[in-house]
Amino acid sequence: MASSSHLALLLLLLLTLTLATVAKEGKAVTTASRKKIYIFRVDHRSKPSIFPTHSHWYASPAFAGGGEPLPLLHVYDTVFHGFSTSLQPDRAAELARHSAVLAVFEDRLRRLHTTRSPQFLGLRTQVGLWSDSDYGSDVIVGVLDTGIWPERRSFSDRNLGPVPSRWRGACETGPGFPASLCNHKLIGARYFSQGHDSNAALGGAGINDTVEFRSPRDADGHGTHTASTAAGRHVFHASMANYAAGIAKGVAPKARIAVYKVCWKSAGCLDSDILAGFDRAVADGVDVISVSIGSGDGVAAPYYLDPIAVGSYGAVSKGVFVSSSAGNDGPSPMSVTNLAPWLTTVGAGTIDRSFPAKVVLGDGRRLAGVSLYSGKPLAGTMLPLVYPGQSGGLSASLCMENSLDPKLVKGKIVICDRGSSPRVAKGMVVKEAGGAAMILANGNSNGEGLVGDAHVLPACSVGSDEGDAIKAYVSSAANPTATMAFEGTVVGVKPAPVVASFSGRGPNGLSPEFLKPDLIAPGVNILAAWTDAVGPTGLDSDGRKTEFNILSGTSMACPHVSGAAALLKSAHPGWSPAAIRSAMMTTANLIDNRPQPITDESTGGAATPLDFGAGHLNLDRAMDPGLVYDLGDQDYVAFLCALGYGPKAIQVITHAPASCPAKRPAAENLNYPSISVAFDGTAAAGGRAQRKTVLRTVTNVGAKAEAVYKAKVDVVGKGVAVTVRPGKLAFTAGAKKRSFAVTVTATGEGNGADGGLGHGYLTWSDGTHEVRSPIVVSRIQPL
To answer: Known Pfam families for this protein (predicted)?
Structure first.
């Protein structure tokens, strides 16, 4: 199983590379004749001096080889040098042979990875990181998303000081968005539609102006939710229809927000616009970028063909921390997205708050579920219960549009299987067919992982086991009936956190030499601000209005880490993005609130680093990590050399010419806070022992310059041994950095699922700090 899934992934990567690579070798980009949008990565040093700017050069007949000047959509100058344009494929292939062009790739569509959580991260009002960082008041968080609904109380600038003097951004105006909506909290707002507009002009899908605002205003809600999660102000009497009532606040309540609308409700997110958002955000002067966007096609492109990886490298190389979502395709192995080592990739966990509901069957059984339904309750009324999948086939079992027979479901509680369409859309299908209520049943892939939804009719989500029990009751009872009870909000739920079943999982399918995701953060049932453009379900037909909404996804986890980075940046302005990530990872929690090891929602068993990376974010400890694993441009270049990338491929990512040493570096030696060792599965035949040694360097950032740390190793798994040399690190004022070697030995014993051999933890301790790194040991099958 492990080798076949890995092989399939590699074959898909090769296919992607074959189709997207371009033209450096004279290959046609595609055989189609219709114009497409392409992104050109250009060596900016090649600009002739007669052109005052790169824009003038790109738009000149000289760059076009004497032909028609190129119709430029975006020009990239900060995180990326180049432009996007619409061309016929043969013309794109011709321009790809230009001596200054490093790479060309076709524009791709990406998707969004769609209160109480700050306290759950260990933040306390009077002491700790909130007070030490003044709630992040001097830090600017850039949010690449669907825009913002600026009138929300979460974006009030009451009692905030002046805008940081280094800010170079703007408040772009448009329909429904005058410049006056920006303030000392929302200090910048821009929108990017050129990619979609060009796509529409070429006959593709474009922006639907009947449901969109051609301005930074948010027609979708996702961007408003993520922005307020990262940096929303304290808002009293917050709730979603009385669910999760209390004080809502972002992780960094005083941080400034700049929004970059790169995603559109009707059209998604195009790479060309995402890159433009990165480019502008860094030029404007943001300190943190939050990007809850990722690929939705299951293919991990090489880093130099991934615009999010390229754009984020340009940001990180200029000192900007970039947080990204891990994707919602879990719990399958290798489902994590946003894999670049300079990105901080965030999975999702639960918090200690839930919205319980009960399904009561006609035979008296009461089955637990969750719901955010806020309309007229069933009040104990027993209604007929039906499962359309018994007779209507797969489409009816999933309650897809136009799949339900009104004669079958009218006035009844309808059981719908989860999957293939949005959960809330299934409720609308049931309602339009005349159904009275809905039970949404998980399948095996989701297990017992539940998220609440603000359904348009009485509805309750139940786990796989409960769903099977209800279906069995329907098939066996002569006249099956049921009702529902909605029980509001419960806090103090145990266990929490739990790794969400949907959260993207490791191992890293592109570079198994380091671990992804990096860590998890709250991402289930998160209360945050919402747009007035749509109701809480996000469906066009939902006319309800709400100031706050409750959503789940790694999209919700990512801004928690973005806000955390803002606080750490404020408390430690000299720390690099890698140091900030290291502080979060090495202090993350492995224990839940029982206290027991964190569990996996999809299995009910103990979670591993492949599920949660380094663990669950704990900001109370991250402020003072003791030691950090730092990284800079040269470290990343060495890593790219280790992957076998050539100078031009590396320059696509780093902007600067690069040369690799004659002896290829070891990718495992990237100075990452986690350790992943992948052995050759073929060489393990016959039970021969295998051994690898990886190198790491730590920097003392503790209050005491004189410190001694001792190593401790804990290993889970049969047939794996780990040693550390030296076992003790002594730091002084003149020796803030120390290096060590970790040797992993694997025997032929104990080959777990998906090639996993085992995992463990290396912890450095000085008696005050515990600096912990996860270790993952696996086998892969080469092609």
So the answer is: fn3_6, Inhibitor_I9, PA, Peptidase_S8
The predicted-structure confidence for 331-368, as pLDDT tens digits, reads as follows 999 999 999 999 999 999 999 999 999 999 999 999 99
Q: Amino acid identity of 778?
A: S
Lowest mean pLDDT among 2-16, 24-38, 175-189, 507-521: 2-16
Burial status of residue 390 (CB atoms within 10 A of its CB: 0-12, 13-18, 19 or more):
middle
Q: Alpha-carbon distance 222 to 293, whole Å?
A: 11
User: Nearest-CA neighbor of 529 among 240, 292, 293?
Assistant: 240
For the whole model, what pTM was predicted? 0.90
Q: Which residues are catalytic?
A: 145, 222, 555
d(CA 340, CA 387): 44
Among the listed residues 534, 543, 549, the one whose alpha carbon sits nearest the alpha carbon of residue 212: 534
Tokens of 441: 């049943």
CA distance 485 to 366: 10
Type of residue found at 210: T
C-alpha–C-alpha distance, residues 308 and 560, integer Å: 19
Find the radius of gyration of the CA atoms of the chain.
Answer: 26
Handedness of CA 27, 29, 34, 40 (dihedral sign): negative
**Structure token pair of residue 657:** 């010419």
Task: Measure CA 83 to chain center.
Answer: 26
- Spatial separation of the C-alpha atoms in residues 128 and 667, rounded to whole Å: 37
- Vertex 16: Cα angle to 502 and 311 (nearest 5): 70
Contact 569, 321 (CB under 8 A): yes
Round to whole Å and give the CA distance between 773 and 672: 9
Q: How far apart are CA 80 and CA 82, in angstroms?
A: 6
What is the Cα–Cα distance from 653 to 648, expressed in whole angstroms?
A: 9
Residue 259 three-state SS: strand
Q: Cite the beta strand spans of 150-309 per DSSP E.
A: 186-191, 235-240, 243-248, 256-261, 263-264, 268-270, 288-291, 293-294
Residue 365 structure tokens: 């059984």
- Please report, as a single letter, which amino acid is at residue 597: P
Token match 């200054």: residue? 100
Cβ neighbours of residue 164 closer than 8 Å, sequence gap 6 or more: 138, 140, 256, 285
Q: Are 327 and 335 in contact (CB under 8 A)?
A: yes
Reported as a single tens digit per residue, the pLDDT across 32-47 is: 468 899 999 999 999 9
Cα 643 from Cα 378, distance rounded (Å): 60
Task: Residue 256: name the closest of 409, 174, 135 by CA.
Answer: 135
Q: pLDDT digits over 183-205, tens only? A: 999 999 999 999 888 887 777 77
Enter the DSSP assignment of 665. Answer: P
3 state DSSP class of 269 = strand
* CA proximity to 717, closest of 763, 694, 749, 688: 749
